[in-house]
Design a protein that fits this description.
This protein is of the alpha+beta class and about 150 residues long. It is built from four helices and five strands. Strand 2 and strand 3 form a beta hairpin.
Length: about 150
């Protein structure tokens, strides 16, 4: 039985936070709810959930469009989480397919995804969907002192 995909709603914040924690990321429901409210109001963002069976959210995906100066307009899968109990059932594959359709409808000539090196499963998953590795990179982060981060 295929999952039902739908646009996330604010009521999904708690479940999205729980799924995010399954991957080891800190995710407070209030912060997710705040971010979700902002993202759902934007045309350049897609946030989907997968229900299997209906009413039981087992995955989520966020995609966005942007236009880096050096590489041009594209879409990016920013986040994808499928619950341990629903993996290998086609949920991730369907979420990615829907993101690709969304990106194509917006005129994006490509869609990219980044995956942490420790996510071993994803390094087989994405190539199986036709994605090719284009580079390895380091990610750096610096907290900006005196600047409050956006809520959530």
């Amino acid at each position: 039985m295929s999952p039902t995909l739908r646009t996330a709603t604010p009521a999904d914040a708690s479940t999205i936070a729980g799924l995010t924690r399954e991957l080891g990321y800190p995710a407070e429901t209030a912060a997710i709810a705040s971010r979700l409210a902002r993202l759902l109001a934007r045309d350049d963002q897609l946030v989907l959930v997968a229900e299997h069976p209906p009413g039981d959210v087992v995955g989520w995906l966020q995609a966005s469009t942007n236009e880096p100066l050096e590489s041009g307009f594209r879409a990016e899968i920013v986040g994808l989480v499928v619950s341990d109990r629903a993996r290998r059932q086609g949920v991730g594959r369907q979420l990615v397919a829907r993101a690709e359709q969304w990106a194509a409808a917006r005129g994006a000539p490509a869609i990219v995804v980044r995956s942490n090196l420790k996510r071993v499963e994803s390094h087989a998953f994405y190539p199986a969907l036709g994605y090719t590795s284009t580079k390895n990179q380091a990610v750096y982060r610096k907290a900006l002192c005196g600047i409050k981060s956006a809520p959530g």
